[in-house]
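Model: Ready when you are.
Researcher: Fold this.
Model:
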Amino acid sequence: MLNSTGIKSQSNNSRVSNSSYQVSGRIINKTDNTPVEFANVVLYSVKDSTPAGFTATDESGKFNITFKNEGEYYISATYVGYNKLESKTFKIMPDRKNVTLPDLNYGRKR
C-alpha cells in the first residue's frame, strides 16, 4: 500500500521482535536507470540527526537496514563521483515496521 508520500508500507504479522524495524529500497542512476552498486547508505533520525543504521547497496542497487526504534527517519546515500542523496522523511511505527522506499535517483557530480 502506498501512502501520500509514495512510500510503500507493510504491516508485519510474522514473528518479529517488537523492537525490530526495517527500511529497504533501491538506488539507481538518474541518467540511465542503472543500479548504483556499493553506495554507502545511512539511516538518520529526523529528531536529532543521529545515525540509526547503515549498509551498502548490492549489485542491484538494493539496500536493507534493520534497526531498533520507531520514529521519523530519512536515508542519506554517498558514492564517489555522485552528489549526496537524501530521501524524503518517513515514519516507522509499531503497525508499520517495514518500509520500502520508492527508487532513489542518484545524479553524478557536474
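Researcher: Now this one.
Model:
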Amino acid sequence: MKRLHIGGSSIVTGDDLADAVLEFASALYASGQIETVGVPFIDDGGVPQVARLQLTPALALWATTVSRDGAEPRDPDLVSSLRERSASLRRSTEEASRAFDSFDL
C-alpha cells in the first residue's frame, strides 16, 4: 500500500491507485488543468472510505510505501480511467507544444 500525501494530510490507498493518481496529477500539471477525483482509501480505523482530491498544478503531492494489515484498496476501473485520461492529456499537451514550436517568432 502507499500513503498519498496531499497538502497537510494523507491517505492510505492501493499501490495501483496511488500510482495512477500521481500520473494523472503530473499530466494535469503539464496541461495547467485542475480536476477532482474520488480515491478509495483506508482510514486510521481500518474502515474503507473515499477521499475527494482536488488535483491542481500548485499542489504538492507525493507517495510513500507503507506496511499495513488488511486488504489493499482497489478500483481497477478508476485506475484505467486515470491512466487513459493521463495519456490523453499528455497527447494534447504534446500537440499544443508542437503547434507552438512551429510558429516563427
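Researcher: Key takeaway?
Model: The first strand starts at residue 2 and ends at 6.
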